[in-house]
Design brief:
Helix content: 10-25%
Number of helices: 2
Strand order of the largest sheet: 1-2-3-4-5-6
Order of helices and strands: HEEEEHEE
Number of domains: 1
Radius of gyration: 14 Å
Number of strands: 6
Strand content: 35-45%
Distance between the termini: 40 Å
Structural class: alpha+beta
Length: 106
């Protein structure tokens, strides 16, 4: 019998960091956490669950992104987390399917 390792992510802590910036989480999938209105995505680091990688939507106003990031940076240590700004993302629909493609731009 083959054993499977399940990697649990601290979603509650990521949600608290997002809420500190004034946003809630609308959806979580595997290692990705999507904010309301897809303004930003938090991605869990592949080996360090206390490190949250932050990507902003390419359409997000740069000044608004700075404000949100500052709030997250201030609050993350309270949740024993660290924010690392990585870049931007773009979401596109995949052909005629009901699938989305996420492109991360670092």
């Amino acid at each position: 019998m083959k054993s499977t390792t399940i990697n649990f992510r601290p979603l509650g802590k990521a949600r608290e960091v997002a809420r500190a910036s004034g946003f809630d989480i609308s959806y979580a999938y595997e290692d990705l956490v999507f904010s309301e209105h897809n303004l930003f995505i938090i991605k869990f680091h592949e080996r360090d669950n206390s490190k949250l990688l932050l990507y902003f939507n390419v359409d997000c106003d740069p000044e608004e992104a700075k404000i949100i990031e500052k709030k997250m940076q201030r609050y993350a240590p309270v949740c024993e987390m660290r924010i690392v700004k990585k870049g931007h993302f773009l979401i596109k629909q995949k052909g005629q399917k009901e699938e989305l493609e996420i492109n991360f731009i670092e």
